[in-house]
TrEMBL record:
Chief place where the protein resides: cytoplasm
GO cellular component: cytoplasm; nucleus
SUPFAM superfamilies according to UniProt: Acyl-CoA N-acyltransferases (Nat)
Protein name: N-alpha-acetyltransferase 40
Length: 269
């Protein structure tokens, strides 16, 4: 009897050591994936030449990469202005606090950007009179072709899953509703897959009904298991946002979606 107890004890210790080793190895592998994806030497647009330009629906724009640690002063100001124009009304009284958070996030070394610039033949001098009259339309004040929008994203780990997390997708008013947002999100998904991410995630304000519909209906994103409304409906009801997800493999679906009902079918950015 004593021998069996001793053997059981040893087996238990061995099993714990093996599990600990598995966890360490997995964490090491995740760190390596994130480090390789986030390399500042890597231009994520280079592998997708067809996505470097968008010439549809009256738009003529092109894309370029950027990094949070290398933003010029005009670019920082532009990002802040466009965020204020597009998001202040949605956040309401929370905006002053949220704006400070976004300013810190904006320049983080791990922040990656895709900037959208209008080609010269579609500069601000040639946009429609209606767009020129738009009171809240932000304008680029730096050098080069006008910037008319941007995507900010990072590579992080959620629930032991490597993901590309979209912090911002912001477009000026006169380039919205022309398929550009969908084009940019499709590009982010391609970049994520290429860099061995298992999902794309993002946060959407509940008050932003257009964005919520865009992501859930047009792009088929789901409310994630880590969104407050899924973690605890009572707490989630008091939160102003949802976390959305599109998983690419079984493990990511299991941990980050954990459901087979699309958001658009069961729920009302």
């Amino acid at each position: 009897m004593e021998q069996k107890r001793f053997e059981f004890h040893n087996n238990n210790i061995l099993e714990k050591k093996m599990k600990r080793r598995e966890v360490l190895e997995k964490n090491k592998a995740l760190d390596e994936i994130i480090r390789n994806a986030a390399s500042i030497d890597k231009d994520h647009l280079q592998l997708f030449p067809p996505f470097r330009q968008y010439n549809r629906n009256g738009l003529s724009v092109y894309l370029e990469s950027g990094y949070g640690s290398q933003l010029s002063s005009p670019m920082k100001q532009y990002i802040q202005n466009l965020l204020k124009v597009n998001m202040e009304g949605l956040y309401g009284s929370e905006w002053p606090t949220e704006e400070k958070v976004k300013r810190r996030e904006m320049v983080a070394p791990e922040a990656r950007y895709i900037f959208v610039r209008e080609a010269r033949n579609a500069s601000v001098d040639e946009i429609s009179p209606k767009a020129k009259e738009e009171k809240n339309c932000s304008r680029w004040m730096g050098d080069g072709d006008p910037v008319v929008g941007f995507v900010e994203y990072r590579y992080i780990v959620e629930e032991e899953i490597p993901v590309a997390y979209v912090y911002e997708l912001q477009l000026e008013h006169h380039v919205q509703g022309k398929g550009l947002g969908k084009f940019l999100m499709q590009l982010i998904e391609l970049i994520a897959r290429k860099n061995r991410m298992s999902a794309v995630m993002l946060t959407v304000q509940k008050a932003n009904l257009l964005a919520m519909n865009f992501y859930t209906s047009k792009l088929r994103y789901m409310i994630s298991t880590i969104s407050p409304s899924r973690v605890d409906p009572l707490i989630g009801a008091k939160k102003s946002y949802e976390i959305l997800c599109k998983a690419f493999d079984h493990e990511a679906k299991e941990k980050l979606e954990d459901a087979y009902t699309l958001v658009g079918e069961g729920h009302g950015q």
